[in-house]
Amino acid sequence: MESTTSNPTSTAAAELLSGVNAKVLLDSVDAFLFDCDGVIWKGDKLIDGIPETLEMLRSKGKKLVFVTNNSTKSRIQYANKFRTLGLSVSQDEIFSSSFAAAMYLKVNQFPPQKKVYVIGGEGIVQELQLAGFTALGGPEDGEKRAQWKSNCLFEHDKEVGAVVVGLDPDINYYKLQYGTLCIRENPGCLFIATNRDSVGHMTDLQEWPGAGCMVGAICASTEREPVVVGKPSTFMMEFLLQKFNLSTSRMCMVGDRLDTDILFGQNAGCKTLLVLSGVTTKSILDDPSNKIQPDYYTNKVSDILGLLGE
Amino acid sequence: MESTTPNPTSTAAAELLTGANAKLLLDSVDAFLFDCDGVIWKGDKLIDGIPETLEMLRSKGKKLVFVTNNSTKSRIQYANKFRTLGLSVSQDEIFSSSFAAAMYLKVNQFPPQKKVYVIGGEGIVQELQLAGFTALGGPEDVEKRAQWKSNCLFEHDKDVGAVVVGLDPDINYYKLQYGTLCIRENPGCLFIATNRDSVGHMTDLQEWPGAGCMVGAICGSTEREPVVVGKPSTFMMEFLLQKFNLSTSRMCMVGDRLDTDILFGQNAGCKTLLVLSGVTTRSILDDPSNKIQPDYYTNKVSDILGLLGE
């Protein structure tokens, strides 16, 4: 029987969650960290059994935290989304990659007189503003068009000291040129990626290109690699630990992506539970080319409730 | 004095073009292969001295060929551009990456009943159609918008057997999703890149993101690497050789990019001449991190004319 202690370098196969080990898991952790897309919801639809399962966990005194790489919303906007879906989650239980980007600039003492160019959504812009920074781009550049014309210079703000790239369904060549010029021509300009997920369940029916798509575009035009602030980077874990007086070994990361959620959990020393309700199937998990094995796997979050016979 | 024989693995520093070695170069080659952006023109402006230099080379019996990674035009459209700029160049002297993509499908016997989705311009669409293939996407998807809506499936044609990605100033999320779905879900779907240039001189005043940017986006969302048909791949060289009864050692590749033009020339066994009128500066050439040394370098193409005292 496999050990239930999480081991970041273990390649032991993941255990299917069962009535027995679900109880052991619950007794061994004080906090559950949940990814959102493909775990809690798909697009704007809650996955079956979520409200009851979260309520059960809270009633057992477990802390709940939501760690999402989807940067399109700020923490406040995510709290609103939870509320709209009938779940009571406060903004300080939410750690979005939009928040992570703003915090990265803050802890690294980004000068407030410098500006930040955003290739991404309102969520990033809001978090930057909440942190006291000046954000350019984002949704306001969604309708801008770039034109190749003789004797006509595409201008960019020389005061931009960082470009933040996240999920951007309004990506266009104007933004790609603006971000590229800032990174290539403004001395010391930072290149920050909220995350690099290749695809995600932005809607209930299918996957769509993730931030990894936009980040890949800028990596190629600038020939530079970004700092990644979202999963699997453990940058966000520092902020979680400041909130809870817990050891990471008393936390369980629940997610649907091996190379972000599960790797994040392993890197931070948490237990890890993969759910198959999102981007990862059993065959991907079992494929010999997959090197990331969570401690446990199950179909969906509400299995925890079902297996405990509650 | 450095040898004038090209050696693809040589790291001997490039020779500045002079009266003496320019004459040697001319006597040792029968054909000049020119890149276009940053070498012949920048945007829609001819670089100084081009018409006279090309005329001189033709008068000496040299064959002229134009090998461009810019896929926005077909060969016919490039012949028109040359004519508009006062240069007489026929379409079979032009090898564009748009033509390369169509030829790649042809020589690999891509079934004509399968379709090709294009993330790129009219040039790729035209060359595909000239080669007898059915092209979807391209300019007709420029104004399409993708929407994340519940219960609403983004459809894609299951008969798409190849996605061709090139320079696309009208890139949008609709095309990125379409191409991503084809590559991820249509069995055996090919992923072809016209080229991977990071930036280029699309206008006279500055650089803009190149096809590498769009290709990087699709690599990010599909987690796949493409077949590259443009420089530095020597795929196009086969077609050049079919036209001319020449050894590649009797050719000189003239370009402004080290990692495409010069590398292409070296890989094919040609002599190589770097011009500093485009994306590469002297300090980039001399930087210790640069591993690609052309045989010769000079400021611009018309130096050949000037140095020979013609």
From TrEMBL, chain A:
The keyword Protein biosynthesis does not apply. Its EC number is 3.1.3.18. It holds the Pfam family Hydrolase_like. This is Phosphoglycolate phosphatase. Keywords: Hydrolase. It comes from the Eukaryota. It catalyses: 2-phosphoglycolate + H2O = glycolate + phosphate. The keyword Transferase does not apply. InterPro entries: HAD-like_sf, HAD-SF_hydro_IIA, HAD_sf, PGP_euk. SUPFAM superfamilies: HAD-like. Belongs to the HAD-like hydrolase superfamily.
Automatic annotation (TrEMBL), chain B:
It catalyses: 2-phosphoglycolate + H2O = glycolate + phosphate. It holds the Pfam family Hydrolase_6. Belongs to the HAD-like hydrolase superfamily. Keywords: Hydrolase. It comes from Hibiscus sabdariffa. InterPro entries: HAD-like_sf, HAD-SF_hydro_IIA, HAD_sf, PGP_euk. Gene3D superfamilies: HAD superfamily/HAD-like. The keyword Nucleotide-binding does not apply. This is Phosphoglycolate phosphatase. Its EC number is 3.1.3.18.
